[in-house]
Design brief:
The chain is mainly α. The chain folds into 2 domains: 2-72, Glutaredoxin (3-Layer(aba) Sandwich), CATH 3.40.30; 84-216, Glutathione S-transferase Yfyf (Class Pi), Chain A, domain 2. Helices cover 58% and strands 6% of the residues. It contains 8 helices and 4 strands, in the order E-H-E-H-E-E-H-H-H-H-H-H. It has a 4-stranded mixed β-sheet. The termini are far apart. The model has no long low-confidence stretch (mean pLDDT 97). Bound molecules: glutathione.
């Protein structure tokens, strides 16, 4: 079994966080040709996104599908609660993180370089980020510290990756959206989890360097 992924990719770090939490060591490979845009990678994964998991003749994309496959194999630490209603909520929250929060954050990647920046795009995304953070915050476990209670799960992996990116792009774009008290509590709990911190502290400088380089560029 192996995973095609790239060090800088947000969804790749989400999967790497899940692997760390599960305690699974699966070989990580760059896509052939070094890019998800290569023809060789398209032949393996017609969707062209990373990450992708290869297990024999099984090719899986979509980070949550990969995490759920590993979960269903029953290996490593569980990233879902036992109760089926809570499991469903874990999926719902993970989709909110991906489809709302991550999408709004991603829409700002092209705005980090000052030259092409459009203030109305930044303002609109900032407001969508704020709305997504509030939506997720309102559905989080009241006592936490993680999204659905005392253990970090699939949705926490996506949230950690998104909040790291949000933190990095906030200064150059002067964003106003901020995590609320439950998410701040989650960040504090993540900072005390060596499995998460090992991955996040390796990732943070990559993102910071990209933001610094891009914000200083003329394009
Ligand atoms: N819904 C996908 C999104 C994955 C995704 O967008 N990955 C980015 C890199 S972080 C990518 O492959 N972008 C290339 C593209 O969309 O063509 C997932 O959950 O895995």
């Amino acid at each position: 079994m192996h995973i095609f992924q790239l060090p800088m990719s947000l969804y790749s770090v989400k999967l790497r966080l899940a692997l760390r939490l599960k305690g699974l060591s699966i070989e990580l490979r760059d896509p052939p040709g070094g890019s998800y845009r290569s023809d060789a990678y398209r032949e393996i994964n017609p969707a062209g996104t990373i990450p992708a998991l290869i297990d024999g003749d099984l090719m899986l994309t979509e980070t949550d599908s990969i995490i759920e496959y590993l979960e269903d194999r029953g290996e490593g630490e569980a990233l879902f609660p036992a109760d089926i209603r809570q499991r469903a909520r874990m999926r719902m929250l993970s989709r909110w993180v991906d489809l709302r929060l991550e999408a709004a954050i991603r829409s700002l990647f092209g705005q980090v370089a000052p030259a092409g920046r459009r203030p109305e795009v930044v303002t609109s995304a900032d407001s969508r980020i704020g709305a997504s953070l509030s939506l997720i915050e309102g559905a989080m476990d009241q006592t936490g510290p993680f999204i659905l209670g005392v253990k970090p799960g699939m949705a926490d992996c996506g949230l950690a990756a998104c909040l790291l990116w949000l933190d990095a792009i906030t200064p150059p774009l002067a964003l106003t959206a901020r995590p609320g008290p439950r998410m701040i509590r989650t960040l504090a709990a993540m900072a005390e989890d060596p499995r998460l911190m090992t991955e996040l502290e390796a990732y943070r400088p990559l993102v910071a360097a990209w933001v610094q380089r891009t914000a200083a560029s003329g394009t």
